[in-house]
């Protein structure tokens, strides 16, 4: 018979119990994710920390770059606004100077009615009628019967025509100057817009373009100022010539004093002896009218040629824009077609790869019994 009541080896039992407790403690340490320190990839964690630091530095540098770009764009916008305000101030100053120099009260048509010194400057209407020998009871003068009425009326009509021509010429010159200034301003604005768009691509190129634009703007302003000064000088000279011409070829200076000279004074003429203007004066008037007609035709021809040139440039620009737009559409269609072919090729490759994985690689699918053998022990 077998002997079953053998004595228990206490030492061996204590060793087995100790190993079991150590295994339970080890499992508690390993299977607890919060307290586990065995098997941690320290290098991977350090690499993650470094990658995160690099990513944060990159984000900070990117934010600083965007901030610098925004500040630069703000500066450009402020500079453009300042230039626009300066142009407006210059234009207002030019308008005020023009009003001050060419629209003074003395040149107005009704200034003789509002002249404060009119009574001091006024001359006697009729020397003979105001003669002391002509009393009130003589009835020598009635309203509208002065002897100088016809000459004064004719002189006023001539003066009115001259004033009207001068105002028309001044208005045409002002309109041309305004159109020229608007054209320069529009061209400058387009150039500045183009420079502002190029600022986003490269800082160095932007600075160079801004300097070039500033230089061109200053040169344009200088040329415009010189042209305005030259036009003012030319206008002043033309006004002087016109005034001299009016005095030289006027009716009062070209009248023949030997035929129509009155005995009552050099400023009087005898109306029944005055024969009107001389043939030379009539020929001069006709020549001047012919010159004005030719000048008007020349200006009309220049305006028509200038308009034709602008129309041609506008048509060429529209044609170039249409060609560029069609070229961009063709390139866009080609890119879309290439992208579609590329997507089809990638889809076919991906489908083939998935079929290969499903049919060739992932043929031995693990079962639940395979996963049940893990996490049984700490070893």
Automatic annotation (TrEMBL):
Q: Does the keyword Cell cycle apply?
A: no
Keyword terms, alphabetized: Cell projection, Cilium, Coiled coil, Cytoplasm, Cytoskeleton, Flagellum
| Coiled coil recorded as keyword | yes
Q: Which domain of life is it from?
A: Eukaryota
Q: What is its main location?
A: cytoplasm
Instruction: Provide the protein's localization.
Output: Cytoplasm, Cytoskeleton, Flagellum axoneme
Q: Which residues form a coiled coil?
A: 282-344
**How does this protein assemble?**
Microtubule inner protein component of sperm flagellar doublet microtubules.
Q: Which family does it belong to?
A: Belongs to the RIB43A family.
> Which PANTHER family does the annotation name?
RE41410P, RIB43A-RELATED
**Would you tell me the protein name for this molecule?**
RIB43A-like with coiled-coils protein 2 isoform X1
Q: Which organism is it from?
A: Branchiostoma belcheri
């Amino acid at each position: 018979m077998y002997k079953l009541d053998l004595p228990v080896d206490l030492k061996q039992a204590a060793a087995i119990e100790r190993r079991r407790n150590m295994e339970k403690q080890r499992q508690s340490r390993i299977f607890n994710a919060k307290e586990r320190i065995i098997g941690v990839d320290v290098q991977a964690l350090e690499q993650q920390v470094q990658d995160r630091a690099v990513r944060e530095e990159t984000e900070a540098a990117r934010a600083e770059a965007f901030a610098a770009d925004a500040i630069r764009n703000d500066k450009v916008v402020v500079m453009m606004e300042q230039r626009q305000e300066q142009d407006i101030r210059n234009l207002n100053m030019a308008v005020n100077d023009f009003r001050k120099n060419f629209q003074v009260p003395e040149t107005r048509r009704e200034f003789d009615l509002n002249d404060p010194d009119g009574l001091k400057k006024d001359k006697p209407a009729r020397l003979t009628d105001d003669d002391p020998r002509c009393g009130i009871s003589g009835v020598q003068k009635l309203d509208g019967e002065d002897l100088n009425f016809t000459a004064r009326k004719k002189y006023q009509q001539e003066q009115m025509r001259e004033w009207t021509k001068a105002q028309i010429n001044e208005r045409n010159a002002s309109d041309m100057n305004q159109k020229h200034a608007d054209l320069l301003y529009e061209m400058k604005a387009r150039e500045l817009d183009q420079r502002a768009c190029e600022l986003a691509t490269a800082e160095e190129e932007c600075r160079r373009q801004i300097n070039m634009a500033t230089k061109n703007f200053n040169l344009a302003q200088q040329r415009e100022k010189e042209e305005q000064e030259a036009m003012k000088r030319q206008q002043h000279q033309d006004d002087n010539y016109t005034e001299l011409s009016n005095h030289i070829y006027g009716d009062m200076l070209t009248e023949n004093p030997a035929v129509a000279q009155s005995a009552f004074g050099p400023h009087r003429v005898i109306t029944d002896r005055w024969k009107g203007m001389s043939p030379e004066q009539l020929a001069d008037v006709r020549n001047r009218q012919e010159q004005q007609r030719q000048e008007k035709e020349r200006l009309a021809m220049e305006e028509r040629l200038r308009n034709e040139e602008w129309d041609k440039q506008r048509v060429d620009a529209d044609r170039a824009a249409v060609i560029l737009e069609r070229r961009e559409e063709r390139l866009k269609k080609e890119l879309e077609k290439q992208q579609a072919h590329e997507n089809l090729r990638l889809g076919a490759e991906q489908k083939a790869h998935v079929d290969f994985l499903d049919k060739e690689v992932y043929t031995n699918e693990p079962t639940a019994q395979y996963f049940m053998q893990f996490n049984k022990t700490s070893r």
